[in-house]
TrEMBL record:
It comes from Providencia alcalifaciens 205/92. This is 7-methyl-GTP pyrophosphatase. Keywords: Cytoplasm, Hydrolase, Nucleotide metabolism. It comes from the Bacteria. Nucleoside triphosphate pyrophosphatase that hydrolyzes 7-methyl-GTP (m(7)GTP). May have a dual role in cell division arrest and in preventing the incorporation of modified nucleotides into cellular nucleic acids. InterPro entries: ITPase-like_fam, Maf-like.
Amino acid sequence: MKSIILASTSEYRQALLKKLGIPFLAAAPNIDETPILQESAQALVIRLSHEKAKALSQQYPQHLIIGSDQVCVIDDKIVGKPHNFENAFKQLKAASGHRVTFYTGLCLLDSTTGTFNVQCEPFDVYFRQLTDEEITQYLHKDEPYQCAGSFKSEGLGISLFDKLSGRDPNTLIGLPTILLLEMLRQHDVNPLLD
């Protein structure tokens, strides 16, 4: 079995991959993540997921490399990580009472052959109507300033929603594990049989 590299330093992606019981190394891909003018959210995450995996292919020439990228879309606008309270408050205020879509790109690259599979997995979050006080209290408790969309669904963020809609709730955390497992099985990697 080829060794697996996760092209990410995200603690959330690493935690999801650890839960699968698959041994891996994590490495920073160090790529420019600037969107291209007029690039759709889906095209952006597909491109960046592939670029992240490809960026590590020379350093890890006989590996399976996982690249992933995620964006949040509110009112047809791509929203990034808030980085601070003020931006997070604005994001949650804009999301209140609305459907917000997350697009997560996933790439599995075989660095031995250069072949890769890259896909985009959507996930919808329906926010309930939130008061300013609820948003403020939530942000102080969960501090989701490094999370696209300004919440942690695996934490208290679940209290912000009316419903979730998508194939895999792990997609919301940043790594669509059902899709990843499908891709890995094509390379004879199956945590149930290893």
